[in-house]
Design goal:
With 292 residues, this protein is α/β, with parallel strands linked by helices. It is built from 12 helices and 9 strands.
Length: 292
Amino acid sequence: MKYELYLGIDGGGSKCKARLELANGELLGEGIAGPANPVHDAELAFDSIASAARDALINAGFSANDLSQVHAVLGLAGVNIPQYYHLLEAWQHPFKQRFITTDLHIACLGAHGGHEGAIVITGTGSSAFASVAGKQLLLGGHGFPLGDKAGGAWLGWRAIGVVLDTFDGLLPQSAFVHDICSSLQVASADDLVTKALRFLPKDYATLAPVVIKAAAAQDVQAVAIMQEGADYLQQLIGRLLEQQPERISVIGGLANRWLEWLPDSSKSLLKSPLCSPEYGAVALAKQMFKES
């Protein structure tokens, strides 16, 4: 093959995205597949990575067999845990070369156009990451319910706590409580507990918009939840600043919502993300493999 192909993979708990480029930065093709977090299902993760990569190749006009000529960086959720990193390392992958790193690492590179920096991520979960002078710092990312404070799942979980306290007569009835109950279609503590017993993080996260809307309407309990989350994010930003990164970005599905709750002194330090995580993965692939 006369082309040097570089592939970036962004693999998370709900989907896997692939980006295929030439060495000069020309985008050739993209692909998408299912979940790629080995903590949840390693075989599914392997299949999703290969499927997204094949889609990117085929969309670029190549054959799926050309995977063996691809230099790939796999940025995956879960591989910050050594057990799952080693699981990926042992995988008989289809690529010419591959490098494994965390989804946070490639998201940080993407946010800063392929360069070092720091990020705070607020989506269903939350975490923070810095890469400065070749040294990496990971904060949070411990997963719900152990961590993920200020993430969508945490917002929903805190809201359910308010509703249960209201049913117990510890807090007054409010439009916020009514809206949470209406969203979940429950009318009692027993209804709510029964419904939430099998909730996954994504189920809790469906309540995040209700919390955000109630806080905007100045509901006392919703405001308290949002302020608690914002205080936590402010602490993360403070820790990242200790690393002296050139840029910090807040990214993720709730990023813009949280910006409204951060003090002006913090907002003035934050820069808009420049590119996607899979772009960051491709940039790293070029750094790792271009010379070889």
